[in-house]
């Protein structure tokens, strides 16, 4: 594998869009989330307490399989969300909100920790940062039915967990990009600037934030 970078960030921040645009621009292979393949997702949204462990274990196993497959590739990879976020943001939030029992959380986190110990981390973690207002605007614009009733407090809790997690993440160099005033869909110059920052960081320069 030549390069392996991950685009991280909250719901609605624009990860998938950026992955698609950069992959096309640079000729890299995009690797996306398997959200639509989760057989527990509909049940989870109906009864989080009952199905949170099942849903998160599916995502964890799917992410592990995906991560192993991408480690075997020879080209450059750009990944949409990481295995680390599945555990440290979404599963942890369910546990903190008491939608996952302590027993399930401990079982889940033990499995996650064992996986992380043997997986190759990305060469660069790109964290897309945004205010909750920006996230809500993006979610409304993309119009997914199941996202339209997402609670503001839920997004805020996730944002807080993201900030805590990225501050202590040490497995890879980190590039933080605040997207509140960026529109890399409409403006090529914004996309070019993001790629410039990624390229600089991949080549060992010290720019860490945009």
What do you see in this structure?
This protein has 210 residues and is α/β, with parallel strands linked by helices. It has one domain: Rossmann fold, CATH 3.40.50. Helix content is 55%, strand content 11%. The protein contains 8 helices and 5 strands.
Provide tags for this entry.
single chain, 210 residues, alpha/beta, Rossmann fold, five-stranded parallel beta sheet, 5 strands, 55% helix, globular
- Oligomeric category: single chain
- Looking at the overall shape, the CATH architecture is 3-Layer(aba) Sandwich
Helix content: 55-70%
The Cα radius of gyration reads 17 Å
Give the low-pLDDT segments.
none
CATH domain fold name: Rossmann fold
CATH class: Alpha Beta
- Whole-number average pLDDT? 89
What structural category do the secondary elements indicate? Answer: alpha/beta
Percentage beta strand: 5-15%
CATH superfamily: P-loop containing nucleotide triphosphate hydrolases
Strand order of the largest sheet: 2-3-1-4-5
Strands, count: 5
What is the 3D form?
A: globular
Count helical runs: 8
The main sheet comes to:
5 strands, parallel
H/E series: EHEHHEHHEHHEH
Distance between the termini: 27 Å
């Amino acid at each position: 594998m030549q390069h392996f970078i991950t685009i991280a960030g909250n719901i609605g921040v624009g990860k998938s869009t950026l992955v698609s645009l950069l992959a096309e621009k640079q000729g890299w292979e995009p690797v996306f989330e398997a959200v639509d393949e989760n057989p527990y997702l509909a049940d989870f949204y109906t009864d989080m307490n009952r199905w949170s462990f099942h849903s998160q274990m599916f995502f964890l196993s799917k992410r592990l399989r995906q991560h192993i497959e991408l480690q075997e590739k020879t080209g450059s990879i750009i990944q949409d969300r990481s295995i680390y976020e599945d555990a440290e943001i979404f599963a942890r939030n369910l546990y903190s909100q008491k939608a996952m029992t302590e027993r399930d959380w401990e079982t889940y986190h033990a499995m996650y920790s064992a996986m992380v110990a043997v997986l190759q981390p990305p060469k660069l973690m790109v964290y897309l940062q945004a205010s909750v207002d920006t996230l809500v605007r993006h979610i409304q614009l993309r119009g997914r039915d199941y996202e339209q009733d997402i609670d503001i407090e839920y997004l805020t809790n996730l944002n807080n967990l993201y900030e805590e997690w990225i501050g202590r993440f040490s497995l890879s160099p980190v590039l933080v990009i605040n997207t509140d005033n960026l529109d890399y869909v409409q403006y090529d110059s914004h996309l070019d600037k993001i790629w410039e920052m990624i390229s600089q960081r991949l080549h060992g320069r010290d720019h860490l934030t945009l």
